[in-house]
Amino acid sequence: MSHLSSPPQKQKGEHKGRGLPRGSERGSSSRDKDRSVTVSSSVPMPIGGKGSRTNCSPSVPQKVPNRLISEKSPYLLQHAYNPVDWYPWGQEAFDKARKENKPIFLSVGYSTCHWCHMMEEESFQNEEIGRLLNEDFVSVKVDREERPDVDKVYMTFVQATSSGGGWPMNVWLTPNLQPFVGGTYFPPEDGLTRVGFRTVLLRIREQWKQNKNTLLENSQRVTTALLARSEISMGDRQVPPSAATMNSRCFQQLDEGYDEEYGGFAEAPKFPTPVILNFLFSYWLSHRLTQDGSRAQQMALHTLKMMANGGIRDHVGQGFHRYSTDRQWHIPHFEKMLYDQAQLAVAYSQAFQISGDEFYSDVAKGILQYVARNLSHRSGGFYSAEDADSPPERGMRPREGAFYVWTVKEVQNLLPEPVLGATEPLTSGQLLMKHYGLTEAGNISPSQDPKGELQGQNVLTVRYSLELTAARFGLDVDAVRTLLNTGLEKLFQARKHRPKPHLDSKMLAAWNGLMVSGYAVTGAVLGQERLINYAINGAKFLKRHMFDVASGRLMRTCYAGPGGTVEHSNPPCWGFLEDYAFVVRGLLDLYEASQESSWLEWALRLQDTQDRLFWDSQGGGYFCSEAELGAGLPLRLKDDQDGAEPSANSVSAHNLLRMHGFTGHKDWMDKCVCLLTAFSERMRRVPVALPEMVRALSAHQQTLKQIVICGDPQAKDTKALLQCVHSIYIPNKVLILANGEPSSFLSRQLPFLSTLRRLEDRATAYVCEDQACSMPITEPCELRKLLHQ
What we know:
This protein is of the alpha+beta class. The protein folds into four domains: 67-230, Glutaredoxin (3-Layer(aba) Sandwich); 243-387 and 504-702, Glycosyltransferase (Alpha/alpha barrel), CATH 1.50.10; 404-497, no CATH class; 705-788, 3-Layer(aba) Sandwich (Glutaredoxin), CATH 3.40.30. It has 27 helices and 26 strands. The strands form nine sheets. The protein has a six-stranded mixed β-sheet, with helices on both faces.
């Protein structure tokens, strides 16, 4: 397999790495380190080079839209007025390519992708490039969030034949959908050290005309090699690997890459990595009395604290940006993703469970406040993302971060009030600027702002503790806290008048499932019914708008329509593995938070559907897509990396264990063992690439706790025992409310529940393992002692 790729620099476009899960499925900004085009090929093709970068600007509509105007995806609609004769992914495009014997140009991205905006503005709005594409190629646009199966298949090709991958992803295919050239962002024209997109098109056109048979043969060889390389199967293995060994190796690999000063696991760019933090918390729990256990806890808590103090967190409006462009978590790529908010809310809630420090619970509440305000549909669903780019003022070209940055003059004008009692003349604005590191010259270094767009601008990042800021000016800590909060609220109100970033109002079942977990877990940990109600409304939305009762299948997407309505594509986009896995996890979390058994019943039905549609009965584990939905694609993959989102197989392993705990059904435990065995080789080779699956492996090889509360769900003593359980970090458990009814859903699943009784008519807890239960416990303090053992 021959290929050419760019020099070993980070590629332009959203980048996707392998190995250490850095959460890098999304986001590279114009202020990252130098980035070069990535282009890969199964035959000798032009090498891409470094490209210049201009600001994103809105598409200039042409008089006649192309066929994408009929699509629902915000990303496809962004390209509906290009001169390119775009097709959506589908049979019409494939038939045209075969009939006219033309290669397919496949371009994959998403609506809040900074470099996707750039390529659309520079190349796809270009009349000459549009003419080239229309004459010699069949051009297909794909929203990677609508069709993750298409994205994964061709990203596998790009990564296998180059130094990396990213978005926009551009791949040239044979009419039979086999890839032969791939890359990421291309600048429009040649430069001193680069080949532009127009030249690449001309050379591919020439190769197709003169060497088509060679292209087809090489493409077939590449596909065959990728099939062998991507296979995940049990093979001759009978059992999964040792959890103790995988745990130890995963921890050691993380320890070696840990940033002692600022937290996190890379130099730059630095990503939130909830899957890693989850692993470290679990590792701490099972190694509490060891030095490594204490180290794991410290690594996770320190990383979460440094992230929350850094500019990656929006201190004015809450929520987290996609990643930091520097080691210090200071200057972010400003895009905000739903899946980050969902997972980080859980991580900060768990940090509060473990540490008791309200700093972490306040961050979790702030995240959920942001989601409720900015990413929520009035019917209960959750939107996908907010863009990094927006115009500094109305009518101007969008710039990255414009909505979020501040000048000293702006803050001084908004906060001119004198601070009484300070040891020197001081205004509220000066206090806030000192605490959050604002300077007259701006706190964004030129290396992070190569185009000079952010000169004099500042990103808020906590420079001092409240105690140090208070001591600096001789003020009371509570007074400083109040002054800073008041100042941030005034900045928030002022920011409302700025042009807002683009909202991707597409709703994805998978990410909505993650968000149901975020609200359910945080609400349970903090004892806040209001947050649990958001989770309930999210689950109701999924059932009402993203579930087909007749077939029992989930839909992948729906869209915000006019007037608060919900719209669907026609035909519907059916769910992928991650949709089922993440929604099932959300429903299990919601049952434990609300104790409404209807959510557990729906989770079990969805798991049955997931098993029917995606389970590999020969090799073990789950395929990412249905066989019929992916018909024609050269690969049917099993996702084998926990990254920005956990692998759906990793989440499914946990779900299967939990459902076995809720029902006792042996089939789900057997499937879990098969799944873990199928991924054995991947875990052995690079355990740090699958920290969530290593967690599941550990949970499987330990004994799951069944914590049963017998009582009236509305009674105070029942609620006290439930809250006791929620307040403790116990990842390897199921929480069951038994109301004493033998005919109840859970009693039918677990007959031993009907043998458990309330003690002296009081709410009573039992801690069971393998259906062998502890003595009855009625006092929360006694239950806490037992659970801490």
